[in-house]
Design a protein that fits this description.
Number of strands: 2
Largest sheet: 2 strands, antiparallel
Order of helices and strands: HHHHHHEEHHH
Strand order of the largest sheet: 1-2
Strand content: under 5%
Structural class: mainly alpha
CATH class of the largest domain: Mainly Alpha
CATH architecture of the largest domain: Orthogonal Bundle
Distance between the termini: 98 Å
CATH topology of the largest domain: Lysozyme
Radius of gyration: 29 Å
Helix content: 40-55%
Number of domains: 2
Shape: globular
């Protein structure tokens, strides 16, 4: 009996000590690590939630310059991915149609998709081209109000990227009555509103601009 007690007592003590050691200590979280309010993050523009995509990831706000404009538009078009081809065949980070690429001097689609630098050049060239085509409309309608929002140069150019400069002319000259949408339901007016207020003056109008 004494032998059993001599063996069991040390085992009991070890068990108690181990159990005590595994018990987590109560420690207060430092004030510097406490989250008292949500962190505020700015985005280029507010995009409404939809049932099909209840959680939309948006890029950080990077200003209202040309860089902010192109990245906001690219995120809307392709989530900023250079290799994207959508279900209608539009290509790259800015979702160009083949016809538009040919207008700016690009004929090799595979080379275009694999070349980010070329895609950026195509975007700049197309803006210069659309600015030339829409130069009188930009001058006439910038600052005017159509519907419940004001017209800006960047909004006009974004809408031209969506629907082509000819359709944007019709929209402006009918004061919004001719508001067409693409195959995904995105309208000219939504792009004019969404991409308003960016400074893209660094890109000058150029007749028949090509790479």
């Amino acid at each position: 009996m004494r032998k059993w007690i001599n063996v069991s007592c040390p085992l009991v003590m070890i068990f108690i000590l181990v159990s005590y050691g595994l018990k987590p200590a109560d420690k207060e979280v430092p004030l510097t690590l406490k989250v008292n309010r949500p962190t505020l993050v700015s985005f280029p523009k507010n995009e409404p939630m939809t049932e099909s995509s209840p959680f939309i990831i948006k890029p950080p706000f990077i200003g209202s310059s040309y860089v902010g404009f192109k990245e906001a538009l690219a995120f809307k078009e392709s989530r900023g991915k250079y290799s994207v081809v959508n279900s209608l065949g539009y290509l790259g980070k800015y979702q160009f149609g083949i016809g538009t690429l040919e207008l700016v001097g690009i004929y090799n689609v595979d080379h275009f998709l694999s070349n980010p630098e070329l895609q950026e050049k195509a975007f700049i060239t197309n803006i210069a081209r659309n600015k030339w085509i829409l130069r009188r409309d930009i001058e006439k309608y910038t600052g005017l109000k159509i519907g419940n929002f004001h017209i800006t140069e960047s909004g006009i150019i974004a809408a031209a990227h969506l629907a082509g400069p000819g359709n944007v002319k019709k929209y402006l000259r009918t004061l919004g009555a001719n508001d067409i949408s693409d195959d995904y339901g995105t309208s000219i007016s939504s792009y004019i509103k969404l991409f308003s207020g960016y400074d893209i003056s660094m890109i000058l109008p150029k007749r028949n601009a090509r790479i």
